[in-house]
Amino acid sequence: MKNMVKAPCIKVEKQQGAEAITVAKSQGLLSPDLGIKRVQDHLCIPLIREPRETELIELKRNLPRSEILQCEFQKREKPSPKLVDLLGDNLPPSLLASLPHAIDFVGDIAVVEVPPELEAYKAVVGKTILTAHKRLNTVLAKSSAVGGEYRTREFETIAGVNKTKTVHREHGCVFHVDLARAYFSPRLSYEHSRVASLVVEGETVLDMFAGVGPFSVLIARKYENVRVYAVDKNPEAIQLLKKNMAVNRVAAKITPILGDARQVVADRLKGSSNRVIMNLPEKAIEYVDAACRAIKREGGIIHYYEFSNTSQPLETAKNRLTEAIKHADRRLGKILLARIVRGVAPFNYQVVVDAEIR
Description:
Elements: E1 4-13, H1 17-26, E2 37-39, E3 42-46, H2 53-62, E4 67-74, H3 83-86, E5 104-106, E6 109-112, H4 122-132, E7 138-142, E8 155-160, E9 165-170, E10 173-178, H5 189-198, E11 204-207, H6 214-222, E12 227-232, H7 235-247, E13 254-258, H8 261-269, E14 275-278, H9 288-294, E15 300-308, H10 313-327, E16 332-345, E17 348-357
Parallel strand pairs: 6-7, 11-12, 11-14, 12-13, 14-15
Antiparallel strand pairs: 1-3, 1-4, 2-3, 5-6, 7-8, 9-10, 15-17, 16-17
Helix pairs in contact: 1-5, 5-6, 8-9
């Protein structure tokens, strides 16, 4: 058949398709030129080459029921042109280098950061993004940094429908999101999948800064026998979380709690959890003692996130967490993993450390 190509692929059950794509992409294996193929209740995710042994181990760890096969795929149509190509005739050449390279797609909303030198051209940039991505209805420009008690930011609509609410799909889950009222980042998609894949049936999980529920809902969807306590001090986030629990049919497995995580642990969750997720990189270090108190007496796992602008961000994060655990009167079993999650600014990174607490 015309435009058909044989290539290696990951074969997974349909509901694991989004997770398989995320894992393959994180390893640089996902083929950008071939379309995903559906075979009855399974999906075949095309790869650029056969996975190496270490990559295969990681794939099997995250997707234990997957298979690596050879399959025929349809070549994708030519991808949409880049912004710099589309705007070449509408911007002075000196400004083309300032165009945003990163666009976050949340549901039918695109979010960009427009530098000051492009302020006069932001409407043109927004309209061009809408033209290039037909499924979008709105383009938002960031107009403030993330800040305040609830970690929100301000946006300006530069093209399309004036809104911040949308429905976002990730790893087979549906999330109602309001970008102006509760923090959400599609750039953490792999972390949501990675942490969820480590949970064991029967565990109790504390999501200390749950937001709209990307960790909590995915974990509850993935496992039959799991209990998740999802805590957030932002009432708007908790309302969206409850909505997401309902639409994903996981309300029986998640307990949403409005309040400060430290106080919630002190009042009702001491010694309750096998696993604690601490995705509040600005302030997680201040809550390590509360996380340690939430871990069961026999021990458990902490997933700790922080921002680091040092020359050795992973070593810095590991050392800070180790000291904080000591001061919390718990013992560090071992560091299970430390990795850079993403860059947030030049020489500034979000990192994660998975630690075993005894």
